[in-house]
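Let's do one together. I've listed all components of the complex below, 551 residues spread over two lines.
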Amino acid sequence: MALNRREFLKAAGAGWLGTLSGLSAMRSAHASTSRGRPRVVVVGAGFGGATCAKYVRLWDQRIDVTLIEPNEKLVSCPMSNWVLGGIRSMQDLEKGYGDLKKHGIRMVHDWAVGVDPVKRTVTTREGATIGYDRLVLAPGVEFMTETVQGYAEAALAHKVTHAFKAGPETALLRRQLESMPDGGVFVIASPPPPGRCVSGPYERACMVAHYFKQHKPRSKIIMLDGHFDVVSKGPMFKAAWEKFYPGMIEHRPNSLVTRLDHVNMMVTTEFDDVKADVINIVPRQRAGKICAVAGVRSDSNGIWCPIDFAAFESTSVPNIHVIGDSVLSNMPKSAHVSNNQAKICAAALVELFNGREPNPYPVIGSTSYSATSDTTSGPIAVVMRYDPDKRIYVRQPGGGASPVSDETNFAYNLAWFENIWADTLG
Amino acid sequence: MYRTYLQLFAIASLSTLSAAIATSGNASANQGSACRIAGLEKPPSICASHNRTLAATCFNCHGPDGRSNGAIPSLAGQSRSDIVNAMKEFRSGQRDEYATVMKKYALGYTDSEYEAMAEYFSNIK
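Okay, and this is what the predicted structure of the assembly comes out as:
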């Protein structure tokens, strides 16, 4: 969090500009309303973008919504660790976008490659130009593989994965684990904050350990953690590692990977060289590329997107909203939070297009489940409330992680997955 | 800051107000009953939008409109008093069994938000 504080203050300072531009933008939105139906374009159909497109249409059918997404189906990052543990298949992670059509969303399967914030158009790789009154960017993260020396070469040789965007890398990592000999070493490296799904690597250690325990019990997992400790659900994960997988998982905090030699299968941190049989490195991340193209990846390091949190509008470029993992905020970067941010943003868009003030006090719930075995999970949950004076979402008292994982929460974890699918794509 | 925003909003709205009224004929956020959330009574549209969005942030666990597919309970069609009482019991710790996430959530919402959410879900048939 300390890393982010300066950027926070800067974002808060810039917020005033965002408010002003938001107001002028409201006028122009009305101008276009009088010309015809207001137009929202959403880029990216993950848990944030697809939800936003759906809820704009659910709440005001007079708004035209176009959803630009290159892939024909959504591959879920939540539960993708379960594939690595062998308790789910790749097919269990995939769902098509067919049901969104019943809401009247126009789906464009293409890459958004250009944004003109003056003419208010998006251009696609195949050459289409799509006009908007309000643009919502929900591209997810881009991986800064250049921060690990040798990563690019190793990725070309299929010797390293991050598998932090579910899909082919998830399947590749599973195959690598399957062909690893018993007694081998699996290295998981995670970056310092902020980044997508902080608990993901810890759950991944549990799932791979579950697989090793059954099929390769002499194997080891070394976690090179860019954090100072097991920072999410720490007591729960440590208890599970001790109870279910004693001696199998070695957690090394403050271990930032700087270099990777895929020929010798060696991972180097600031302190150590670690020899591995399978290498999984989650690099540092930044907001998706389209955010840079649109000029909204505008924090001090050009990494995340500062926004005005009541409507999720960029503080740099009017009429462009950003939701999900690309946002500069103190909120967790998770599917659950993206899905809820999408609803706050959709509600604000509906109010703006109707000439009403968006709710200045949005409230977001954040929940995340992690599995620790094939029958146990545990949650973290917190309510976050927007404070217009501090210009941040403030965590409400009472939130936190469960100290234990159990079967009740495993059942809830499964239900959560079914319900967030239905809420996002149904 | 917020008050200044409101003033600016009021100024900006003057030029667009008539257009807004003309185009907001079936705006559903204006519908619904009295505001149940303390401090958000005016204008009513903010309260209506907040109610609806607040309820929607429950859907990713409890299913769209509170119709759950799995072990997490459905909220759709539950009575208002049942939902409000459940939230109060989660908060007090009286309801403990299977109360994993809700014990934490209940502490983050106000009584009037319990009422608003309960009203939404009790009206889903």
